[in-house]
Amino acid sequence: MRTAAKTPWVALVGNPNSGKTAIFNVLTGLNQKVSNYPGVTVEKKIGKARFTDGDQFDLLDLPGTYSLTPESMDERIVTEQVLNWIHGDNSPSVIVSVVDATNLSRNFYLTTQLADIGIPVVVALNMMDLVIDKLEINLEKFAKDLGVAAIVPMSATEKWGQNKLLSAIQTSIGVKNHENPFPIFLNDDISSALDPLQDIIKREFGYGDRFSTAQALRLITRHSTLEIYNELTTNGISVDNSFLESLEYKRQNAVDILEDLGIKHRIMEATLRYEWLDSVLRTTKINIDPQIAETNYSEKLDGLLTHKFAGPAIFVLLLYFIFQSIFTWAIIPMDWIDGGVSWIGSQILNIMPAGMLRDLLVEGVIAGVGAILIFLPQILILMFFMTLLEDTGYMARVAFMMDRFMTIIGLHGRSVLPLMSGYACAIPGIMSTRTIDSWKERLITILILPLMSCSARLPVYALMIGAFIPTANVFGFINLQGLTLVMMYFLGTATAFLLAKVFSIFIKVEGKSSFVMELPPYRTPLWRSVFSQVLNRGKLFVVNAGKIIMAISIVLWFLASFPKVDNPNGNENSIHNSYAGKIGRTIEPVIEPLGFDWKLGIGLITSFAAREVLVSTMATIYNVESDGDDVIQLKDAMKSDRNPKTGEPLYTPLVALSLIVFFVFAAQCMATFAIVRNETNTWKWPLFMIVYMNVLAYSASFLVYQGGLLLGFG
Amino acid sequence: MTLYDLIDGEIATVKSFTGNMELQSRLVEMGILPGIRIRRIKTAPMNGPIELKVRDYHLSLRQVDARNILIDQ
């Protein structure tokens, strides 16, 4: 978080669904940069904004959190950041606490924790448009009671109040936060238990009065608060280990004292804070629970959308619509990209002199990058729908409805949407698993996710089914080709669910499963925010996957093109004699029991870059003219290929089925495993996935082919 | 009686918690304290999690966890 020394910077902190991102977008416009926090793929958004007098400042949008206790991944990041600020590592000039005005008490809970820090806090009381007639608070008194610099009513959706917010931020820059005492009354028992802990952190870290009490309270309440200190460094120096040990010791002492007094220490901070906050809210004439009998519009809508029977039915229809659009709408832009990539390739062929560099550029770099870019429309469409569902609040309902089924198979309600994304592409799916707060279920979701048949498998399925599965009808009305395709999607999904159950039994990972989830009110999404999220994720996808695809494509191109043999007969022999051809023939004995020859062997190797590369590899091997329809000609070429020894057709429907089944299970797309490495922070899990998926693929393929031969097919 | 026993649509007051401390601290942080009033709205399809209204917002939690919230009606 290094920023230029002279530009002040401001941190945005708030509950999930408080409209924090909307405020960020209103203040920064499109002037924002998205990156990741070190080691995790939680998005870090920084934008540039201006005060009303034109002075510039940086704005950091932190992940949404309900409190500063570091339990989930998002909370942990916010808590670590906050502790870094206190320990002097480039702290913000002002913290803006974003509060949803329709849900005051729970949102202000976090504000009270922020006010302890000692950095000026300005409250952005967002969504005032929804309660403007109902809410009458004496804001000045309330701000004083809480110990914040100002409370500014505003509405990010209706775009008012932001100038007042900007002025409030600007005037509170540099305001010395007086050494306020902790505002919450602590009885003698609690104070005397806290004292030793409070003294030692105050002395060692130089905390102010208010924060040292707050932090002592939090250390007792949650052990995870202590763990954060292990990671903390101040100007490159980490906290002394023996100090942490004595801190641990003093904490345990305080815990023991409180336990003896019958005080539940683990709910102590939240209980004290809410009791205080509720009393402050009552004196400001806000009653905290009279409206729970009231039915709002979201609840009425949920009468249908999460209805016992209608709810799941609507969800299935919605899914059908989304996948329909991924496979129909995307075709047009995919054709454009395909055309664009070949146009660039042909331009380079025209401009550059023939030679190795040109071949590398055209056949390696452009073909490789084109192979990944072609899936961008599908991914963007999928991302668009996912963002829309998330931003309207529907996503939480899906998790709510599906949690029961998902728990039975060892997953979590929040696994549903990542798994669905996996039908388009595993990469965004894996990235979106971070909403699952239990690590074990998140890990299992990641492990099985690549078994959902992604769109890169579709060209392979289409080629093999089109060429070798008869167009006959089953029971007179079901098309056998279509049935085979559907069965492959089913095979992958069913296996994924089965393995999830198996993994949940065998994988021992710390972390209890819980499902304490807010169902936010339905809200009209801000289109600008939806589009910027879609674009940002698309960018991350292209950059992350693109790097790997490009590298592998270049390596594959070398393997397939060298050693160069001057052969007037064309490409076939040159591939046969290339390193790739040699590798193909070397692995032939291994893949022979699956019914594959050396040519498919090369295809299997190249498909490690991306699954659909199999099709283009086979096309190159058969030296098909590229003017016509590749797939049809490739189909014919494969059908008429004969086994040189027996004279029988080389590829039979059984071989095709064996190959498709192999593709259902095999770990091929290396970009996926690079993302898994990022998300799990270790090579252990991606390696485990590569092994289990390929063992599964080989065994299933072996069973299909050998079983088929035994039964007399083929 | 626990929140698990409360019928959909009915209102009750939280009395205390039992069991899993992890869950208790989570719930208290979300503002579910002894003395607060809650309304059980509905049960998810397939007898899944339950939905509650508390402090102006809606929360869902699993039925096993609802057994750990003692209430007065």
Write a concise keyword list for the protein shown above.
heterodimer, A: 714 residues, alpha/beta, Rossmann fold, Helix Hairpins, seven-stranded mixed β-sheet, 59% helix, 7% strand, elongated, B: 73 residues, alpha+beta, SH3 type barrels, 5 strands, 18% helix, globular
Number of strands of chain B: 5
Number of helices, counting only DSSP H or I runs of 4 residues or more of chain A: 30
Largest sheet of chain B: 5 strands, antiparallel
User: Which stretches of chain A are low in confidence, meaning pLDDT under 50 for 5 or more residues running?
Assistant: 568-572, 624-632
Biggest sheet statistics of chain A = 7 strands, mixed
Query: Which superfamily, in CATH terms, is the homologous superfamily of chain B?
Result: Ferrous iron transport protein A (FeoA)
- In the CATH scheme, what's the topology name of chain B? SH3 type barrels
Radius of gyration of chain A: 30 Å
Give the integer mean of the pLDDT values of chain A. Answer: 84
The shape of chain B is globular
Tally of domains of chain A = 4
CATH architecture of chain B: Roll
CATH class of chain B: Mainly Beta
**What's the number of structural domains of chain B?**
1
Q: In terms of per-residue confidence, which ranges of chain B show pLDDT below 50 for 5 or more consecutive residues?
A: none
Structure report:
The complex is a heterodimer of chains A (714) and B (73). Chain A is of the alpha/beta class. Chain A folds into four domains: 9-172, P-loop containing nucleotide triphosphate hydrolases (Rossmann fold), CATH 3.40.50.300; 188-292, Helix Hairpins (Orthogonal Bundle); 312-455 and 497-506, no CATH class; 528-710, no CATH class. Chain A has a seven-stranded mixed β-sheet with strand order 2-3-4-1-5-6-7, sandwiched between helices. In chain A, strands 8-9 form a two-stranded antiparallel sheet. Chain A has a two-stranded antiparallel ribbon with strand order 10-11. The longest helix of chain A is centred in the C-terminal third of the chain and has 35 residues, at 527-561. Chain B has one domain (3-72): Ferrous iron transport protein A (FeoA) (SH3 type barrels), CATH 2.30.30.90. In chain B, 18% of the residues lie in helices and 38% in strands. Chain B has a five-stranded antiparallel β-sheet with strand order 4-3-2-1-5. The chains are: A alpha/beta (714), B alpha+beta (73). At the A-B interface, helix 3, helix 10, helix 11, helix 16 and strand 12 of A face helix 1, strand 2, strand 3 and strand 4 of B. Strand 12 of chain A pairs antiparallel with strand 4 of chain B.
